[in-house]
Design a protein that fits this description.
This protein is mainly α and about 240 residues long. It contains ten helices and three strands, in the order αβααββααααααα. The chain has three domains: about 70 residues, no CATH class; about 70 residues; about 60 residues, no CATH class.
Length: about 240
């Protein structure tokens, strides 16, 4: 689900994945506890009559289950997509979803310490290399995409903070990657300025401030006074 949504390792012959079945896969990945047929229809088939929407949901769920079966080995008839108490959900025992992995890595990292925390945050940073369902513009998607973006941004910020004193170059590289993924996030730029300062890179600090100013102009905004002052102070200190 990170990057263009896809089902990996399809090896068996069969029917192709329908566009609406792909959207259903993303929707269910964003609702791991499951969603009722009626609610799925409301979001994915908003222009259809209720009975028609219900039928389309069932058809797309069947197609999605079929294509997941082309990539999996489960023998149970209703594996991959299960329906319990009237709610469809991806079966966590037979389906791996990278968004769920990212969520779990961040949950564990927040209570971990030392080497284990470093390992979990590193794994999260490596996993989050593109937005949720990149290239898709589903009307319901944006809040979920923003939630996943926050998880990815937090992973990069926390790991960079941990590395800043001992390995400022790696911290700087992490923050550069995070800025590409979340270019309007001012906190990333300020942390990156600290990393550039630790490297003695005054020009890099000024470059970051100029870049932030340009991207925020797209939103008719500008860097905060604190960020501008920080950039100036750190660049002067780095030039000495």
């Amino acid at each position: 689900m990170l990057g263009p949504p896809r089902i990996e390792d399809i090896t068996k012959p069969g029917r192709p994945l329908r566009a609406k079945a792909l959207e259903l896969a993303v929707f269910l990945a964003c609702h791991p506890d499951g969603v009722t047929t009626r609610d799925i229809g409301e979001y994915l088939e908003p222009d259809a009559r209720l009975s028609q929407a219900d039928q389309r949901v069932h058809t797309n769920a069947s197609n999605l289950r079929h294509v997941l079966g082309r990539a999996g080995t489960a023998e149970t008839k209703n594996a991959y997509i299960i329906k319990t108490a009237g709610r469809y959900r991806l079966d966590p025992t037979t389906v791996d979803v990278d968004v769920w992995t990212l969520r779990d890595l961040m949950r564990r990292a927040t209570i971990a310490t030392g080497l284990r925390r470093h390992e979990l945050l590193t794994a999260a940073c490596e996993l989050y290399d593109a937005p949720l369902a990149e290239g898709q513009d589903y009307e319901w998607l944006q809040p979920h995409r923003e939630t996943v973006r926050r998880w990815g941004t937090e992973a990069h910020l926390l790991l960079a903070e941990d590395l800043l004193n001992q390995d400022p170059q790696t911290a700087s590289d992490l923050l550069n990657k995070a800025i590409v993924l979340d270019r309007y996030n001012e906190a990333l730029y300020t942390k990156a300025m600290h990393a550039r300062h630790a490297l003695g890179d005054a020009d890099g600090i000024r470059t970051l401030l100029r870049a932030l100013t340009r991207v925020l102009a797209d939103l008719d905004a500008q860097p905060s006074e604190d960020t501008i002052a920080l950039g100036r102070v750190l660049s002067i200190m780095g030039a000495r």
